[in-house]
């Protein structure tokens, strides 16, 4: 009998380890080894032997009976546990005689629900609006199908416009006038605290930053994954990498190059060279991918292509970049330009046609070149 009890103690220890995860969710966990004596007196080590596997039995009145099985036993867990012949208050069930006959132990467990921690309850109460108060959160989850797009004729403004058109969404456009600094007015700061375009409202919900807008639109409105990939896939993260490449590389570097080449108040040979050289380096990175693939991520046209295209297309126009040096990028750019949705997007928020824009940029660069001549004359006169 001592050896049987020792075996039961070992089994009880094993059960404590197995139920460690479950014990985090209960207030108390109790184990008892109940000795019963079958009607027959032969040996049965299968029930109490710690080397044999066990399985959970049947839940009875808040208690869980755990029976032990021999690997070679043909009976199921349910039939084994129901064949025991011991009544017990913890399980509220009477067990019939086990097919084996030596007195052995049945281990039982009782688990009471653990109450929610007081801290969690307080946190919930703080989040809930009080009597007479209204929550400032939307009552319904997006999408709201009430889109208003705030934009202007810039590369960042073009990016979400292409996606809006590709998805065929209905949306209202509000063109922002840079000449009057409309993007810095209080009403617009409420939509985008950064005072930049673009911005999007869907009902009363706001989204700002062009990349965030594109991700919102694909999450909410591109349920068929036409222009994105399933979250968690390799192609999804490849797409995100190229999207961030545009936002952290192509966009900032080309923006600075455009500024020094056509819009700076004074001519800066260093600024022009520095940022045009960096832009060309980034074009070379795109060429590595596009020389052997049609699209930046996976095998289809995605928001990564839309975002990079919106900036790259200005390379020849603003910076006089020779696209024959980047044949893969050039083919990719022309392929996207031919899409009907892209042609429509170019007109969203644009005060000038494509030809008028080219003419304006040519004039701006000519003025900058004139400033270069003036700077050189002033430098030579000082010498």
UniProtKB/TrEMBL annotation:
Q: Which residues form the GST N-terminal domain?
A: 144-225
* Domain of life per record: Eukaryota
Coiled-coil boundaries: none
Phylogenetic lineage: Eukaryota, Fungi, Dikarya, Ascomycota, Pezizomycotina
Q: Which PANTHER family match?
A: GLUTATHIONE S-TRANSFERASE GSTA, GLUTATHIONE S-TRANSFERASE-RELATED
The organism named in the record is: Exophiala oligosperma
- The segment(s) forming the GST C-terminal domain are 232-364
Q: Which family does it belong to?
A: Belongs to the GST superfamily.
Where are the residues of the annotated region Disordered?
A: 115-141
- Its recorded name reads Glutathione S-transferase
């Amino acid at each position: 009998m001592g050896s049987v009890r020792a075996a039961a103690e070992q089994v009880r220890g094993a059960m404590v380890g197995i139920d460690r995860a479950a014990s985090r969710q209960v207030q108390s966990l109790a184990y008892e080894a109940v000795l019963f004596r079958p009607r027959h007196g032969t040996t049965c080590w299968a029930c109490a032997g710690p080397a044999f596997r066990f399985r959970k039995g049947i839940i009875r009145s808040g208690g869980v009976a755990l029976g032990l099985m021999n690997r070679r036993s043909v009976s199921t867990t349910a039939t084994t546990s129901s064949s025991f012949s011991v009544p017990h208050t913890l399980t509220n069930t009477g067990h019939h005689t086990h097919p084996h006959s030596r007195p052995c132990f049945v281990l039982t467990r009782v688990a009471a629900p653990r109450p929610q921690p007081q801290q969690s309850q307080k946190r919930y109460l703080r989040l809930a609006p009080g009597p007479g108060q209204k929550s400032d959160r939307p009552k319904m989850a997006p999408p709201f199908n009430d889109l208003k797009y705030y934009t202007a004729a810039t590369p960042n403004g073009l990016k979400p416009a292409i996606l809006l058109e590709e998805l065929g969404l209905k949306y209202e456009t509000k063109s922002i006038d840079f000449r009057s600094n409309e993007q810095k007015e209080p009403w617009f700061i409420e939509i985008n605290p950064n005072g930049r375009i673009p911005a999007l409202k869907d009902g009363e919900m706001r989204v700002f930053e062009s990349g965030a807008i594109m991700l919102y639109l694909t999450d909410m409105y591109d349920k068929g994954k036409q222009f994105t990939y399933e979250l968690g896939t390799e192609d999804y993260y490849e797409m995100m990498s190229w999207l961030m490449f545009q936002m952290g590389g192509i966009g900032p570097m080309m923006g600075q190059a455009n500024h020094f080449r056509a819009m700076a108040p004074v001519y800066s040979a260093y600024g022009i060279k520095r940022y045009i050289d960096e832009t060309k380096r980034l074009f070379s990175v795109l060429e590595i991918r596009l020389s052997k693939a049609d699209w930046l991520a996976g095998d289809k046209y995605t928001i990564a292509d839309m975002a990079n295209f919106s900036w790259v297309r200005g390379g020849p126009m603003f910076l006089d970049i020779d696209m024959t040096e980047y044949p893969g990028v050039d083919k990719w750019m022309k392929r996207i330009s031919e899409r009907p949705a892209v042609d429509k997007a170019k007109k969203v928020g644009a005060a000038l046609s494509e030809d008028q824009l080219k003419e304006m940029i040519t004039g701006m660069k000519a003025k900058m070149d004139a400033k270069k001549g003036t700077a050189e004359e002033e430098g030579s006169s000082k010498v």
